[in-house]
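agent> Task received from the user: take the single chain below, predict its 3D structure, and emit structure tokens. No templates, no multimer pairing.
agent> Plan: (1) validate residues, (2) run structure prediction, (3) serialize to tokens, (4) report one or two observations.
agent> Step 1 OK, no nonstandard residues flagged.
tool_call: predict_structure(input=
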Amino acid sequence: MNILVQGAGALGVYFGGRMLEAGESVSFFVREKRANQLIKEGLKINSPEGSFETKDVMVYTSPEKVKDIDLVILAVKGYHLNQVIPQVQMIVQQTGAFVLPLLNGMEHLQLLQQAVGTEKVVGGFASIIATLNEQGHVEHTNGSSTIKFGALHNEQTKICEQLEAIHSHVKTNILREENILKHMWKKYIFITAFSGITSAMQLPAGFIASSEASFAVARKVIYEMSLLAEKEGIALTDQEVEVMANRLKGFKKEATSSMHQDMRKGLPIEVEHLHGGALRMAAKHHVTVPVIETLYGVLKPYENGKPN
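)
tool_result: status=success, residues=308
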């Protein structure tokens, strides 16, 4: 199986690098500046799961040159999605590849399905706490990493079987799930609360547990998001919701969300993709989500980076 990772931020480089390390055929589609950095500095992962580096990295910067790809792993930020959809369309048209988006949220599924066909978009998401250093190398800071994926169309069975087979020999988790939409929703629920509260506090995760008031805000986001999931046909038990809420207290003090990391660096944040998406869904179903709406208002000025 030939895999193209589109996007070489921390998430794309980490999982693409792990597959390269295991001997899989992996290339990267990136912007010119990032391509030059990868060629100069190489691909390097610093991780509790084992470090890895290589200078042997195949990069593309033009969709016209991409051939013989079976799977595109789309690992871009939500705010870049509209920019990359024409590139994804061209690559799929040329190669017939399937697309596995690892974006947060849910709105991207429909946008990609409209662009390349419902049968081509596999469900999935990633869980990792990682960032890039100044050399463009991955600093993986928590002790685990996971891609979860699953078929959303009966034509995706074979590609899912091929991806599942990689799990046994990579230094990460690549896990196939039958009800992938429910798992995607659970990730969306949790990350909206976790990224929202850490970014609004402008403090790492340890402060969620140490302040009951802050934990209460994040917990209410979990419950508001669970209401939206229910409206979208995803049933969650009270126990599942409570488990998600209590996970917010389980992080190491210095750990934090990728949104908060981006905010600290003065970079754009995914507030529109996460919290804005939730508000659009709430409007569709005529329900109110006041805590999400408040976090959205607090974080919106940082959407395009540090406000001037």
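agent> Step 4: summary for the user.
The first strand starts at residue 2 and ends at 6.
agent> Done.
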